[in-house]
Design brief:
355 residues, alpha+beta, Arc Repressor Mutant, subunit A, three-stranded antiparallel β-sheet
Length: 355
């Protein structure tokens, strides 16, 4: 069940409130040493998963998208790798403790809370991956106050292949809950693929988002993190960044050649497109989840950006999926074969036998 209209929430209840936004804005970017450590962490994790049984914990998807006191949720999955100490994850139907070298994926829209602690004389520390519109965030977390985690250092990496990350992540979640002979092998393969993708993006990842400096970079971070918050606007972003809305709007347009209001709408529409293509949520639910308090206004903005309504877009996506294959199945030296999987010689033999 999707949460009620986000416009009716008070700021403290919003799953993407300004406190979380400030944590992201105030956290430093990954240093050279952070990147080197992150590469080592992923290398070690790949060896761990490849060579021996590993622990993966995924909470049950209960009370999806509902507001639960002391918990929050995200519109895309989160990936955790515990490094030191432990994290106690609470969710509506239970809890579990994540220890060193254990993995956790929190499915999209699952309410959860986190409490962290040191263990065996070593401080708490973990590595967290988040997914946004065309970008992946990776950050180290530490215990900022008793039991409370915060961001030590973070980087947003441009990810044109974001759908690949999400396919693996959601595939792990789905397969983990199944009882099938090849379950463990499939989960292992997908976890290794995820870790490899993270390792590669740390090694080679760059992008325009990381190239921006100062308040423009911070504004983009906030929009990508909180686009689903219906209260997100230029005024709220400017207040978080301690500057005036007019100054921030002028600076953003000067550096990006795009109005900040347009950027907010564009990021929201990109998130809605992903939901339209990959989920069965209603148009109204997608509107609320994309930060629009009014589904009718969402439809107007969507048509302004894409030229068609959300309903028409979803219909065209369905038509494209159902269309027969237009390309030949196999291309030979002297002809193209459109038949799915039966070589020409075998088909001729089959035809003669039928005759």
């Amino acid at each position: 069940m999707i949460a009620s209209n986000p416009a009716l929430r008070c700021p403290a209840e919003s799953p993407h409130n300004s406190v979380e936004g400030k944590a992201i804005v105030n956290a430093p970017r990954l240093s050279y040493e952070n990147r080197a450590e992150m590469r080592q962490v992923f290398d070690r994790a790949i060896r761990l998963v490849d060579r021996q049984p590993f622990s993966l914990k995924i909470p049950r998807a209960a009370r999806i998208g509902q507001l639960v006191k002391g918990m929050h949720y995200h519109y895309r999955p989160e990936f955790f790798l515990q490094l030191q100490g432990s994290t106690t994850f609470r969710y509506p139907d239970g809890s579990f403790v994540l220890g060193p070298d254990e993995f956790c994926i929190i499915p999209a829209n699952v309410p959860h809370g986190e409490q962290v602690q040191a263990a065996q004389g070593r401080p708490f520390r973990n590595l967290v991956a988040g997914f946004y519109n065309h970008s992946v965030s990776l950050h180290f977390a530490y215990e900022a106050s008793p039991g409370k985690p915060d961001i030590e250092a973070i980087e947003f990496f441009d990810a044109p292949n974001l759908d690949v990350f999400l396919t693996f992540c959601n595939g792990i979640i789905q397969t983990h809950s199944m009882q099938s002979p090849a379950r463990d092998a499939v989960v292992k393969g997908m976890v290794l693929s995820m870790l490899g993708l993270f390792r590669n993006i740390v090694e080679t990842g760059t992008g325009r988002l990381n190239g921006d400096i100062g308040k423009v970079h911070q504004a983009k971070c906030l929009v990508r993190e909180q686009f689903s918050n219906s209260e997100l606007c230029v005024r709220l972003i400017a207040g978080t960044l301690a500057c005036s809305p007019d100054y921030l709007s002028h600076l953003f347009h000067l550096e990006t050649k795009e109005k900040l209001t347009h950027y907010i709408q564009r990021i929201r529409i990109e998130g809605a497109i992903l939901a339209l293509e990959s989920s069965s949520l209603t148009i109204a639910e997608i509107a609320y989840g994309s930060g629009f308090a009014d589904p009718a206004y969402f439809a107007r903005v969507f048509k302004l950006h894409k030229g068609i309504t959300p309903v028409e877009f979803r219909g065209l996506s369905g038509v494209r999926r159902r269309q027969p294959e237009q390309q030949p199945k196999t291309v030979y030296f002297d002809y193209s074969d459109f038949n799915p999987g039966i070589p020409r010689a075998d088909r001729a033999a089959a035809v003669s036998m039928d005759a």
